């Protein structure tokens, strides 16, 4: 009798262990059949914003309590692609396997988020998994809409002189095209949508200018900056310096010119002239064209009406980063409607604010930390020099160093080329970098 009940108890324990193991697998496996998973913090997007915030929260809420949904298997340090396009860095130095940057203790679902249900705190993936969350952080970046320029997708495939630093699939075309450019028309474009790193369309142009000068070909190539904007840069201080620069370097700037089509057979690029009721267009012959494609928030987010504003970007409070409607949802980085220049540098500063505010919400309090719009754009002006633009909301200049950063400086280029990558991989992605705010205060004796 005692032996029998002992056996039953052992059997029961065994069955319980199997069920427990199956539950564990159901909650945390990254593959397997359709099932529901739960977590305290769900991060959608494993880019700059997603990984750096996940790294902080897994330390707070513990192993197994953070899930990251990210479809790709490679993480890129995109900020380095300008130097890759200019032939000054290797593309292979800009990437790492995604699994190596997923913070330890986080669970990674390698899939796309295809449906947000903020009323029921769930996100569904393309593979059919539904993830329940207590708190959601959205860091999905920007979608590159190459197809919105007629003929561009094909031209990028077939014409070696049509290039773009903006995608991992095309950035390696830029330098060979530059090396082959002997004479004619070079065009650099800027679209009519928000983009990542608003300085990048110009940086590659200044590198091209420098490259052609160093190789004795500059007099044979006419350089055009065709921008959909009405200004060369959004912050007056840096805009003034850049206007001086283009004039000194003999670069033609065509404002309000928005690229709409490329005809690779005719080697022609068509631009609509904005702000003109007549719907005027103008064609330019090209021998080299660097295209910055139109961009938007990813379709799945754009189509989630309850989460986005009228422009399709995640609708968050620009200072607290909390969603305007759902208090358990926060946003970070390029996919949000925060009115500042979309950069990794901005994300560094947003990281600290998001961490403090979401932690307060988790503890039952209210958000209190405020983001000041800090962002930075190292405007590479040659292979040796850079203007380090740093600013916040409404174009307020927020320079870290006690020197005029509007001047082209060798030190700033060294910072961009050699120091920033280490900060990115070793500190930021591990959740230890809030941007240079502390150093700025120190260097300005607490006044800035
Ligand atoms: C050429 C170039 C030059 C730049 N120069 C600089 C610079 O000098 N300084 C600087 O600070 N910044 C620079 N940037 C900008 C910087 O790289 C971005 O601002 C930053 O990476 C944005 O981070 P994010 O997390 O918002 O988006 P990303 O890093 O782009 O990550 C978004 C992630 O979301 C994932 N995702 C998308 N859709 C889904 C989905 N449906 N489900 C799940 N996941 C999804 C993507 O796969 C991606 O991994 C540059 C960028 C480029 C391209």
Automatic annotation (TrEMBL):
Cell location: Mitochondrion
Domain FAD/NAD(P)-binding: 40-152
Keywords of this entry: FAD, Flavoprotein, Mitochondrion, Oxidoreductase, Quinone, Transit peptide
Uppermost EC category: oxidoreductase
GO molecular function, one term: sulfide:quinone oxidoreductase activity
Presence of keyword Cytoplasm: no
Cofactor(s) recorded in Swiss-Prot or TrEMBL: FAD
InterPro entries the UniProt entry points to: FAD/NAD-bd_sf (IPR036188), FAD/NAD-binding_dom (IPR023753), Sulphide_quinone_reductase (IPR015904)
One Pfam entry name: Pyr_redox_2
One GO cellular component term noted in the UniProt record for this chain: mitochondrion
Biological processes annotated in GO: sulfide oxidation, using sulfide:quinone oxidoreductase
Catalytic activity, as annotated: a quinone + hydrogen sulfide + glutathione + H(+) = S-sulfanylglutathione + a quinol; ubiquinone-10 + hydrogen sulfide + glutathione + H(+) = S-sulfanylglutathione + ubiquinol-10; ubiquinone-10 + hydrogen sulfide + sulfite + 2 H(+) = ubiquinol-10 + thiosulfate
The protein's Enzyme Commission number: 1.8.5.8
Family classification: Belongs to the SQRD family.
Stated role: Catalyzes the oxidation of hydrogen sulfide with the help of a quinone, such as ubiquinone-10, giving rise to thiosulfate and ultimately to sulfane (molecular sulfur) atoms. Requires an additional electron acceptor; can use sulfite, sulfide or cyanide (in vitro). It is believed the in vivo electron acceptor is glutathione.
Protein name: Sulfide:quinone oxidoreductase, mitochondrial
Organism in which the protein naturally occurs: Lottia gigantea
